[in-house]
Amino acid sequence: MGEFRSFESDRLLLRPMSLDDDAFILELYNSPKCLQFIGDRNLQNTEDARLYIKDKMLSQLHRLGFSNYCVIRKVDHARLGACGLYDREGLDEIDLGFAFLPEYEGKGYACEAAAALVDATNNVFNLQALQAITRKDNFGSQKLLQKLGFSHIRNIQIPRDPADLMLYRMEF
Fold it and tell me: What pTM was computed for the model?
């Protein structure tokens, strides 16, 4: 993993997900808000999580140089959540996404991690714009995206997701 960039903020380290994050991804992606707002990824055990990391995260990391990052608190090395840049089917540009374990919500970690990746999107990966999607009832994500400087563009649907989603965009 050494050839891929990690990022940091005052309190956090963001490093690319690895196969060693399988138990963490299993817990995170089966947390209530992840299931509600992101959807069921059908991860039943750590082997499912390892395959998901390999197929969805590491393949994009090797293809584009960025993907999903494990958000780690510097002070105690606790894994708090995930924040990533995704090449998502149905979107024209790279998508910013984030999810945190329930005990770490409401502490500013998502904003801090997402801001670090927004900065990297422009200054490291040299992308001209970034998109983000959220469900209409995910008011916390909407508030965070607006705080980061995203603007709501329109509502959309993406392949294999029946939900109406709010599309946000930011240009650099």
Answer: 0.94
